[in-house]
Design brief:
The protein has twelve helices and eleven strands. The longest helix has 16 residues. Helix 2 crosses helix 3 and helix 4 packs antiparallel against helix 8. Helix 10 links the parallel strand 9 and strand 10. By secondary structure, the protein is of the alpha/beta class.
Length: about 375
């Protein structure tokens, strides 16, 4: 069980069968922490699967609350909604904080994972829940990478995909951000390449890694607006007293109270393996085989998964709609401006999937983008 607190609604799925990883190693059994909302239909065909971002949990009604409820894209009265903590995470799923078969914490011994390994673990959960058809797999950032893999690994079951602020493969730019964060972890002498005492964790390294990430999750304009008028209040020659510095330190310190450092590293490593074309004849061939309807959500202000990533993804898919979700907040806009995401999803469901979600008002988006951005996702 994870050392980090799980919600009272969280359930645990156990699979005793070893999971063969892409590395060739066998993970001897696995556990996934998950939550569900609504009821599975007798035919097992009303499931919607949500995939969380890097440090997320199964509590999707917390981090994406504006998407839940009557009249919204995720309605438990209509859908059977499933969200599980990812393999390698630290909110109840098997990962570095879990006990290995020898009864000792996995720690640095935890095997390397790929995004495909993580999705294959989730497919076992779907099997166990009796899900025969998935209306849509939805995710942003790391979750968007997983949503795309779902469609290729389980094409008979996955009916559609929503991938927001993600890409067909991890870019050199995203890998550079990952490596900078790994270096921050490694610079903490307590980290010991993941072999640390959980009672004495490398909080300084994890806080520094999170501070780096937060810069990538925003952008220059967002920070300028956020801290406008606060610069003059800084004490001279005391960087720790500045508003910007305090904001970064706050977010770094907050993560150390809710996340494990080596789990963070394992998930960064997995994201860097993401390439839909690996072992599938190249990226163009893989995308051509992803024939389900796909909503590709781009954030014009995103400086991490830059909009060009989504342009390239949508251009290579045979059945994609590209939508710009208007948010000034950078990469984290898919969480901060969740009502805009909800409107974009409802429009996609209504126009492309004949899904019973209510359609938002406003101009409909075309089936294929005629220009780099099709404006959409406004609050409906």
């Amino acid at each position: 069980m994870s050392a980090f607190r799980l919600s009272d609604q969280t359930r645990l799925f156990q699979s005793e069968r070893p999971l063969r990883l892409e590395s060739g190693a066998d993970l001897p059994g696995l556990q996934l922490a998950y939550r569900t909302w609504g009821r599975l239909s007798p035919r097992g065909d009303n499931a919607v699967v949500l995939c969380h971002a890097l440090t997320g949990s199964a509590d999707a009604d917390d981090w994406w609350a504006p998407l839940f409820g009557p009249g919204r894209s995720l309605d438990p009265a209509r859908d059977f909604i499933v969200c599980s903590n990812v393999l390698g995470g630290c909110y109840g799923s098997t990962g570095p904080t879990s006990l290995a078969p020898d009864g000792v914490r996995w720690g640095a011994r935890f095997p390397r994972l790929t995004v495909r390994d993580q999705v294959r673990a989730k497919m076992r959960l779907a099997d166990a829940l009796g899900i025969r058809h998935i209306r849509c797999v939805i995710g942003g950032s790391m979750g968007g990478l997983q949503a795309l893999e779902w469609a290729l690994l389980d094409p008979q079951r996955v009916g559609a995909v929503v991938s927001i602020a993600a890409a067909a493969r991890h870019s050199a730019w995203c890998m550079a951000w990952s490596e900078a964060q790994r270096l921050a972890l490694a610079a903490d002498p307590r980290y010991r390449d993941g072999a640390y005492d959980p009672a004495d964790p490398p909080v300084a390294g994890l806080a520094a890694a999170r501070a780096m990430a937060m810069v990538g999750y925003r952008n220059a304009a967002a920070l300028a607006r956020r801290f406008e008028g606060e610069h003059d209040a800084r004490a001279p020659f005391s960087p720790a007293d500045g508003a910007v510095q305090g904001w970064l330190r706050h977010h770094g310190d907050a993560l150390t109270r809710r996340f494990d450092a080596h789990s963070y590293r394992v998930l960064l490593d997995a994201m860097d393996t993401h390439d839909l074309g690996r072992g599938r004849g190249g990226l163009a061939t893989a995308l051509a085989h992803l024939t389900q309807p796909v909503l590709v959500g781009a954030l014009p202000s995103d400086t991490l998964y830059v909009p060009e990533d989504q342009f390239d993804l949508a251009a290579g898919l045979p059945n994609a709609s590209l939508v710009a979700i208007d948010t000034p907040h950078g990469h984290d806009g898919f969480l901060i401006d969740a009502p805009r995401v909800d409107a974009a999803l409802r429009r996609f469901f209504c126009e492309r999937l004949a899904h019973p979600a209510p359609c938002p008002s406003g101009r409909p988006a075309p089936r294929r983008a005629a220009s780099p951005f099709v404006t959409g996702g406004q609050p409906g």
